[in-house]
Specification:
Blueprint: E1 25-33, E2 36-43, E3 49-52, E4 57-71, E5 74-79, E6 83-86, E7 92-95, E8 100-107
Antiparallel strand pairs: 1-2, 2-8, 3-7, 4-5, 4-6, 4-7, 4-8
Length: about 110
């Protein structure tokens, strides 16, 4: 997992920032500050994220493929270009549903 930020003041094609790795979830940090972070993630087929909660609002946007997000027990299938806000303190996880890439933005401001 490479957590160094991407190069600033340079144009990037977001879905090309990260590649798929067999049987893996890959995370690349775009920007990380004390008030939040932006990451791009790739999920190989059969890979997801286990259930968790965070004290921060999180914005998830699918940039390639599709993903099933489960938030507080409610399932939502997101397709390429769709997004959802995961509320602070809500349990959530991602069910494996084929390969996909997404941008995850965590906003910490206001919770210190």
């Amino acid at each position: 997992m490479n957590t160094s930020e991407i190069e600033k003041s340079k144009s990037h094609i977001t879905i090309e920032i990260i590649e798929y790795l067999i049987n893996s979830v890959v995370i690349k940090t775009i920007l990380k500050k004390s008030t939040g972070s932006i990451s791009v993630m790739s999920f190989d087929s059969g890979e997801g994220l286990t259930e968790k909660t965070t004290p921060f609002d999180t914005f998830a946007q699918i940039i390639e493929g599709q993903a099933e997000m489960v938030i507080s027990g409610e399932s939502c299938l997101l397709l390429t270009g769709q997004s959802i806000v995961i509320p602070a303190h809500a349990s959530n996880f991602i069910k494996p549903n084929g390969r996909f890439k997404m941008i995850l933005t965590v906003i910490k401001s206001g919770y210190e």
